[in-house]
Amino acid sequence: MHQYECGNCGLRSGKYLTRFGAERYGKGHRDKKHGGMFPINEGILTYSGQAPQAGEWRTIVLVAAILLIGLASKLV
Ligand SMILES: [Zn+2]
Fold first, then answer.
1. How many angstroms separate the most distant Cα atoms in the chain?
2. 19, 57, 69, 70 - which has most CB atoms within 10 Å?
3. Where are the domains of the chain?
């Protein structure tokens, strides 16, 4: 789940299944409230309970590789 947050206005959007949805809301908010400018303290909040994203998969694979290497070195 993703939410757009504008720290400047102190508001959060509804929850979106995709980050793109939250970003699209953020773009609309910027256009309406900030004249298309990027407010300070805006961001996309991401909640767990979803499939890992591309960047997270790299970390998972890396940790798995380290664990396997550790295991292999004990066996040798
Ligand atoms: Zn705002």
1. 64
2. 19
3. 2-75
How many Å apart are CA 6 and CA 20, to the nearest integer?
A: 16
Q: How much distance in Å is there from the Cα of 64 to the middle of ligand 1?
A: 41
Q: Is residue 35 very low, low, confident or very high in pLDDT (cuts 50, 70, 90)?
A: very high
Q: Is the pLDDT of residue 51 over 70?
A: no
CA of 19 to the centre of ligand 1 (A): 18
Distance 9 CA to ligand 1 centre (A): 4
Instruction: Assign 15 to helix, strand or coil.
Output: coil
pLDDT digits (tens, 9 = 90+) for 7-18: 999 999 999 999
For tokens 């998972």, the residue is 60
